[in-house]
Structure of M15 family metallopeptidase:
Amino acid sequence: MSLDARSRARLKGVHPRLAAVTERAAEITPVGFIVTEGLRTRARQAALVKAGASRTLNSRHLTGHAIDVAAVVDGKVRWDWPLYPRIADAFRRAAAEQGTALIWGGDWPRLRDGPHFELDRKAFP
């Protein structure tokens, strides 16, 4: 598999290391995915907080250090939780291959966010 043109366009402004991990993850994932969002404006982030879709105005999306994806099965976007750990495994493998420190939102103890991947702040402040 590979990323479609729309997903690649959504990687514009995203840190090159995260974009590279995303490209590689798309090649090796057992579950297809699209990139739904990368770099965000402050206005977009504020709107997401207001709508309850985010809890922070200090998102890694604001600096291009985070992306969100959506699973695609049989041409349809799916949000079923069991799909996202499988996608995360591909991201982890890609990140390990490239030596990129990556955080998956699905590993967070509170407010797990399966579609979210970001560069580790310790390595990419």
